[in-house]
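Hello again,

I reread your note about wanting to compare the complex against the isolated chains. To keep things tidy I'm splitting this into two emails, and this first one only covers the full assembly. Below are the input lines as submitted, including protein chains and any nucleic acid or small-molecule components. They are followed by the predicted structure of everything together. The single-chain runs will come separately.
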Amino acid sequence: MLSIKNLHASVEDKLILKGLDLEIKPGEVHAIMGPNGAGKSTMGYVLSGKDGYTVESGTVELNGVNLLDLEPEERAKEGLFLAFQYPVEIPGVSNLEFLKASVDAQRKARGEDDLSAKEFLKQAREACKKVDLPAEFLKRGVNEGFSGGEKKRNEIMQMLLLKPKLCILDESDSGLDIDALKVVADGVNSQRSPDRSFIVITHYQRLLDYIKPDFVHVLADGKIIKSGDASLALELDAQGYGWLTEQREGDEA
Amino acid sequence: MYTAGYSRLVSIERRDMSEEQIEKVLSREYEAGFVTDIESETFEPGLDEDVIRRISAMKNEPEWMLEWRLKAYAIWLEMEEPDWAHVQYPKIDFQKISYYSAPKSMADKPQSLDEVDPELLETYKKLGIPLEEQMMLAGVAVDVVFDSVSVVTTFKDKLKEAGVIFCSISEALQEYPELVKKYIGSVVPQRDNYFAALNSAVFTDGSFVYIPKGVRCPMELSTYFRINEENTGQFERTIIIADEGSHVSYLEGCTAPQRDENQLHAAVVELVIMDDAEIKYSTVQNWYPGDENGKGGIYNFVTKRAVCYTNAKVSWTQVETGSAITWKYPSCILRGDNSVGEFYSVALTRGMQQADTGTKMIHLGKNTRSTIISKGISAGRSNNSYRGLVRMGPRADGARNFTQCDSLLIGDQCGAHTFPYVESRNPTAIVEHEATTSKVSDDQMFLCQQRGLDPEKAVAMIVNGFCKEVFKELPMEFAVEAGKLLEISLEGSVG
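Full-complex prediction:
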């Protein structure tokens, strides 16, 4: 599904990713954990092609397509979805209008016809229900006046509608109470399938109680320094990241 | 907008008409002498008293009208061209303009769409305008456009039944001279301003509307249906009178780019709104903005004003995307107690366009209320200014104004300016002003692109969202078209 090799990337001339390697097979859920400033969010932005994030070297392929050659919207059409950590507001543009345009654009890229307004509305209402957002949210401006938790659930709702192949969740758990966390996790779990993969970026083991990862990676100083199964997350929760980063410094010395 | 509304009317027509009726309509149109052979005459450039006399004679106007024009001309000669607006353009040589051009004869027109500028056709296509209408808009010589004729005929019958007068100002001068005499210049006097004075002297076109007491006009009045004037004049004079307790919605302009060889446009619109009456006046202006260097675009200097009597209401809604220069301040004189004035505006400038537009709310009566919602969008190297005056007179007890003035910038070479003027001479009056300036942010763009939208679509969507408060004031079909128009206007302004 996704193959990242020796990825180096910088922001404003500062090197953030320093040789990232990651292989994800269809159907897998990978959790990326790590201390603040390790480059976790940068990874999400580089993969999705945000302006200002410069790839210095390395390769990224999604199902054999070189992502780094593509514009952000082309990557989206290849099936990459990023759930934002801080979703922005677009005043006056209704969620419904925004999502219809997104879904239509992606369907068009795949050579499919536009959904009828009726069918789309039905799907959108179902998606809202799944993440426990009242259907009125479809009529409101994109993220306009939403609470932090509502914004996060709105992101998952978009994911449900767009049905991407690779979902990157950038701290979708931050700022959520336990009920909202469950809603987000249920949304994600309902989408797990043999042909869809997830990258779950998080600070806390808590989310992984609900979304069981196949693999857990620790990202520190721009590269993955340790990988393991779900039990690694529990270990990190108990011991923090210190022992890993110290151990690594020891290795390098 | 009305292209869509018009198409809908056409389809209703098709359904409802029996063959016999169609036959009837067709023959009636010949009876009425539908094709009027006007002797083609275009005046030599230049302006003097003689030119004005000739215009008046061409129109077969009453003597008082000529006198009124000549007085306006004398006033204009003494006035100076204003230079306070935040716009720059080379000085206009008024002697180089021709002040009368007769409608083109069939032979002078393009004979088919093949002879029409392909770029214009491309835009029509994007707006989804039916082929027949494209021909009308592009001025192609067609003998009979059946659909429009039949629609217009039913349209006129319905209005007649309701007692509504809706005709060209020239026609009104023949049929209802007393009404014209009573109201012309009553809201915008000859000496009001430089361009209004010029218009008063040389106007050749425009609409006249009278809605009788207590009548709710059965349909939206669109300049589109006033078919006998196929050339929109450079100097239009429009007068709308809503008598006591009446109601009318008037649509002016067109989202389709209009073909026009005249560079200077100086229109005057006067609205008289009697007690308990209401006028809703919507404009979509999309005149040629000029090439990328601003060359050849239309100069649009417009004076629009409404006077409201007791409990009367006026609502100006405008979407301005065209012209090289827009100089326009639709105003409300809230003379009667409890009268209401509203101004909703979207002005988009791109390329080298310059817009200086806004409104004046003059509160004279007690408990008068006004709302101003202005949305300015600047892209390219354009300049977009909001200029608004709110004046609370000494008798305007309890009057209120709310102004919201938002600017949106696209790119970093354009300018947005706000010039609000507030004069309050009544301590009980309340004036509120809110203003924001924002940019289409990189994060908004990225969110849209991440969901699969290309940058142009993303900008159009963000801008449409920004304008929503104004668009919702437009008649529905108009609003949809206005959204599309913005999208097309913004093409190429990203990246």
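For quick reference: Residues 146-162 of chain B form the longest helix (17 residues).

B.
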